Amino acid sequence: MDNQVAENEARLRAILDTVIDGIIVIDDKGLIDSVNPAAEKIFGYREAELKAKNVRILMPSPYREEHDGYLANYASTGQARIIGIGREVVGLRKDGSVFPMNLSVGKMLLHDKIYFTGIVSDISARVTAEEVARKLSRAVEQSASLVFITDLAGNIEYTNRKFSEVTGYNAQEVRGKNPKILKSGSLSEADYSSLWSTITKGDEWRGEFHNRKKNGEQFWVLASISPIRDAQQRITHYLSIQEDITELKEIQQDLARSNAELQQFAYVASHDLQEPLRMIGSYVQLLSRRYKGKMDAAADEFISFAVDGVERMQKLINDLLAYSRLSTTARPHEVADLNVILEEVRANLKVAIAETGMVIEAADLPQIKVEQSQIMQLFQNLIANAIKFRSPHAPRVTISAQKAGNFWHFSCRDNGIGLDMRYAEKIFVIFQRLNNRLDYPGTGIGL
């Protein structure tokens, strides 16, 4: 019989020593009788440090002050607050740190003496995860972006407050529905097919939607749609985050319309100015040829000023016409070898290059989609500028290109007179110049 008891005690001790939950046994005075290794690990004490100590040592204020009163009340009335009921409380470790734990307490009678057994689980990780989840939930719910989550079939499971605010649909109205309820018809079926092909492969899709609200009003969004994966990296849902860009689209449309009107105005005004200016120029030049030297020096100077003014006005109008044609005459982009285009520019500027001894260095330039006449004009203007604003040394221009992700980064450097960087923005404003017109003629439109 004694062997059996010893065996049972050994089995019980083995169980207590290996369970992952902390077990604390106290007597009816609240003094600790025993703790298992899991409890030692949770609270940071060795069993010898806790034995015969009041269990309040494991409780932070104000719970430790209430504990003795609770035991006394239970002894006198038999009313239990937590015995037999699991609850979340806080514990106090040896190092002074407080942590959340789940506590369940049981009562037992052993050798006519009452003991209470507390089973403790450290739930710090779970509480932290829940708090993070709550923060994320609040962030999504209060986000300025439209957010919704769909299942694998594309049916909506969740929408945030901004979604309802913008679309006019509440969460109940769209739950289980496909986002196509917002379709305005501007995105083709081929586009939707491409979207689904992208996200089902596990990639992110980005693009714009022209959608329709519940009241029929249309709006624009910039959207990103991404797969949501579980711990095994299997796609379980799709997340859509959308920015309402309706106002931006309206501004862009107004700007495009305004630019088109300005370009048309510049073209018409410049074109219509050509004829009277030609007439003025013809008569001023006629005066110069017929009367130069026949009047006094002041008259010759006045006529010279008039001729110069007409020539500068004609140059200005021609530059304005070229500027207004930049977008109105643009052709579709085509793949072109920029090395070939640069050689054509060299040929166009052959005389100026030879006269100044200019050296043009160009690394191997790429073949990319461009509007060929405009890229040629760009290269030609940059090189002509380097010739025009050269230093006392022979002009040198270096043109290079480097791949940067999905883009090419071009660099053009020369050894000319340069400019004060305080005026770096000013010189890109139409008609703005930094240099004296007599030293460096021009209209301020080139850049």
What's the total count of β strands?
15
Distance between the termini: 105 Å
Helix content: 40-55%
Order of helices and strands: HEEHHHEEEHEEHHHEEEHHEHHEEHEE
| Low-pLDDT residue spans | none
Shape: elongated
Classification by helices and strands: alpha+beta
Largest sheet composition:
5 strands, antiparallel
Mean pLDDT: 83
**Number of DSSP helices?**
13
Sheet with the most strands: spatial strand order? 2-1-5-4-3
Q: Measured on Cα atoms, how large is the radius of gyration?
A: 42 Å
Give your account of this protein's structure:
- With 447 residues, the chain is α+β, with helices and mostly antiparallel strands.
- Helices cover 44% and strands 24% of the residues.
- It contains 13 helices and 15 strands.
- Strands 2-1-5-4-3 form a five-stranded antiparallel sheet. The chain has a five-stranded antiparallel sheet with strand order 7-6-10-9-8, sandwiched between helices. The chain has a three-stranded mixed sheet with strand order 12-14-15, covered by helices on one side.
- Strand 6 and strand 7 (156-159) form a beta hairpin.
- Helix 11 (338-348) packs across helix 13 (372-388).
- The chain is elongated.
- The N and C termini lie far apart (105 Å).
